[in-house]
Structures are given as structure tokens and as C-alpha cells.
Amino acid sequence: MKLSDRLAALGETPVLDRREPRPPVLPTAAAHVHDEEPADGLSSLKARVGTALFDRMGARLNDPNLVEDDLLSSAREVLAEIVDAESVPLTDDERQRLVREISDDVLGYGPLQPLLDDPSLTEVMVNGPDQIFVERGGRLTLSGSRFRSEEQLRRVIEKIVSRVGRRIDESSPLVDARLEDGSRVNAVIPPLAVNGSSLTIRKFAADPLTVSDLITFGSLSPQMAELLNACVKAHLNIIVSGGTGTGKTTLLNVLSSFIPDGERIITIEDAVELQLQQDHVVRLESRPANIEGRGEVTIRDLLRNSLRMRPDRIVVGECRGGEALDMLQAMNTGHDGSLSTVHANSPRDAIARLETLVLMAGMDLPLRAIREQIASAVHLIVQLTRMRDGSRRVTHITEVQGMEGEIVTLQDAFVFDYSAGIDASGRFLGKPVSTGVRPRFLDRLIDLGIEVSPDVFALPTDRR
């Protein structure tokens, strides 16, 4: 029997929370009810090795002063020694795989660990213990990994959320969290998740994408990048709009990279995701209520508090509620250069979405007053779209020009050209092109001494 077949028949293995050590759970007869073949000697070997690892490294596994990489290295060395001492006839490949899988179970996230270590994957979606989908290159595929049981999946979820001070149980069956590298995590457990616990992980690259990367991918054109760079340096207020999974946070990171050094930046998020590269950054994260329903700190609370922290820039990860009103007020009261994102499918929809979010603040404001606030506060909307081919493209850069009667007037500076069609592989051949219209805010850029090449607004046929 191959090692892969034998490992598939294993029972539960210990998964330890480093902050709350507990003895490893040894396999029981119940753990093999659904297995087609009985557990063999490899199952007991894995249990013995896990127990020995805990006995030899129990205190070190919970040492907060030990660096994660040093802990992993030490644990793998100890695991290798324990496996060698067992004198079990395994090939070198089988021994290395056994050590790696026990290490993933005890110190990592079990069957998810190889997927999280794969740099080509951008999203991992667990639909119960038997089904794990992954996204690679914008396409969804079913992976060969699976959890042995619902209990193992629940322990992995609890390990993830407990490390960022969150909790998940029957009284609070859904949670947003993050991994150590900033990857976004959403978990839902029964009774809300009917087919077993659900876990969605949106991975972030170890090295944040740069504007050059987006140009290479075709998400941005060089002319769009030049304009956005100038707008950020000129302290224009920018809203990044797009649907779920379109890359709003990635683009927000790229826009924030244009902020000059020497400015004080305050980021406000539900779960910390932004990867700003400047030195002077204060990162604030909201907090849910505790088990008694107390202690909640909302995005609105953090946003109001940030105004007392002498910010040069306020970056809100996403406006999804009444904080939109506080954001617009901040933009209108001397905090120019603020950045945020909203969920919307077009620039016009983004304006309507902001109106709705402001109404969620509970203030009885007339619609015209809200629109005047938006028209005065927001200078630019950058629209992202996820294409059918899986690529993410900036499809609009739109200026908010002001009010005309009861309507907020918009003017596109760049739009995506769909007329080029698609190639044989189904990929869109089009690219963003200038409309030839010069935005009104160019005068502000000139007053600040920020130059924008005339070619930026030239029509494709006129470009040299």
C-alpha cells in the first residue's frame, strides 16, 4: 500500500493551540467509522510521534518569545529524531512526508498548509471537510486535499481565529479573521453552514504587488498609472469601486504606495489586510463584541477617533455602513487625500451605494444634502471589474465633477475598450483607453506643481 493510501486511513491527529496546550487526541475506534479499511501500524505510529513531540516540546510550543520560523525548524528536527527512533521501515520520501504532515497538523493548518504555501493560489475555499476548492489564475478547481473529519476542520478554524483574538462557537457562528501574513479569512460553522463548516481564505502575496506588476498584468495602462500617481500626490480623495474579488484591496495598496514619505497615514479596517510600505503608518482594527455583548469597537468609532490623531491621510479598508458619512465629513473638513473602497459595479452605482451607506448612519438627511456631500468630497472613482477570463482590469477612471440640479455629474477619463474582442483562449484583448477629456482637477495639479504628460489624455490614434 502506498503511503498516500495509508495516510488516508488515519484517524484524528493532535492539533495544538500554542496558547492553550492540551494533550494530543489519540485515534479512537469512532474515528475510523467511515474508513473503508482498518487503521494500520502507520496510524499508531503517527499518534505516537505526535504524543512524543508534545512531550518533548510542550513548553516551547507555547513560548511567546520564540520566533515562528525557529519554532517550526526546531519542531521538524525533533520530529525527524522521533521518527528515526521508531525504527519503522519507511523510505526516505515516506519519512519526509510523514514528518511534514505531522508538522502541518501540530504547528500548521493540516491539509490547508500545502495550499497556503503554494504561491500560485490566490484563494482557498473549504466547503465542509470533504471539499476544498482553490483559485489559480482566476479559475476555480477542486483540489485533492480534504479534512479527515468535521472535528479536524473545526480545530483548524478555532486555531486561526483564536490567534487574532476572535472566537467562533454556536453563539457566534461566523467570524472574519486573518492569518499571520495578512490573508483574509471568513469562517461559518453549523448551524448556519448546513453541509459542514465553511472556510474561505483570500491569500495575499508575500511581496505586495506594485504598479509595475499591474501594468504587466494588463490591469492598468502606463497612462492610467501616471494619472493616479499624480492624483494621490495632489491629495485628491479617491474611491476604489468594484465587486467581490475584483482586487480592490490590491489596488488600494498600490495607490497608497504613491503617498510621499513624511506623511502620517492612519489605516482603519475590520481585519488588517493593507500592506503599506511607508514608515509612518498607524494601523487600527475594529473589534467585535465579547461573549457578554460588550466591548465592540466599530469602524465609525475608529474613524472618529482617527481625526484626533493628526492624520495626513486616512485610509479606510472598506466603507460598508454608516462610516461612509464620517468618511465624507473627514474628506470635507481638511483631510484631503483620503482613500477607501466600496462594493459597486460601476462609477454611477458607486455614487448610489455611497448614498445608501450614508443613510445607514441613521441620520435623517435629505438626499440632496447627501449628494452635495459626495460631490464635494469625492474627486475620483476607480472602477475595477473581474472579467469572464478571470483577469481583473480597471475599467473606468471617472472624475466626480459636481452637481447639476439633483444629479451628481460624472466624467470618464479612461474606459475599457471591449471592442477588441477575445483571443483563442478566451482572454480579452482590449485595454483601457483615454476618452480624450481633460479632467477639471488638472488645474489643481498645475497649481501644486505636479506635472502630467499631455500624452496621458491623448486618444489612442493621436498618441505618439
Protein architecture, described:
This protein is of the alpha/beta class and 464 residues long. It has 14 helices and 15 strands. It has three domains: 107 residues, no CATH class; 96 residues, Beta-Lactamase; 247 residues, Rossmann fold (3-Layer(aba) Sandwich). The strands form two sheets. A nine-stranded mixed beta sheet has the order 9-8-10-11-7-12-13-14-15, sandwiched between helices. A six-stranded antiparallel beta sheet has the order 3-2-1-6-5-4, covered by helices on one side. α2 packs antiparallel against α3 and α10 packs parallel to α11.
Task: Name the features.
alpha/beta; 464 residues; disordered N terminus; 14 helices; Beta-Lactamase; single chain; six-stranded antiparallel sheet; globular; nine-stranded mixed sheet; 15 strands; Rossmann fold
What's the helix and strand layout?
Blueprint: H1 3-8, H2 41-61, H3 68-86, H4 92-107, H5 113-117, E1 121-127, E2 132-136, E3 139-142, H6 150-162, E4 174-178, E5 184-188, E6 198-202, H7 211-217, H8 222-233, E7 238-242, H9 248-256, E8 265-269, E9 281-285, H10 299-306, E10 313-316, H11 323-332, E11 339-343, H12 347-359, H13 367-377, E12 380-386, E13 392-404, E14 407-416, E15 432-434, H14 442-447
Parallel strand pairs: 7-11, 7-12, 8-9, 8-10, 10-11
Antiparallel strand pairs: 1-2, 1-6, 2-3, 4-5, 5-6, 12-13, 13-14, 14-15
Helix pairs in contact: 2-3, 2-4, 3-4, 10-11, 11-13, 12-13
CATH class of the largest domain: Alpha Beta
Major sheet strand order: 9-8-10-11-7-12-13-14-15
Strand composition percent: 15-25%
Mean pLDDT: 82
| Series of secondary-structure elements, N-terminal to C-terminal | HHHHHEEEHEEEHHEHEEHEHEHHEEEEH
Tell me the CATH topology of the largest domain.
Answer: Rossmann fold
CATH architecture of the largest domain: 3-Layer(aba) Sandwich
Q: Main β-sheet: number of strands, strand sense, barrel status?
A: 9 strands, mixed
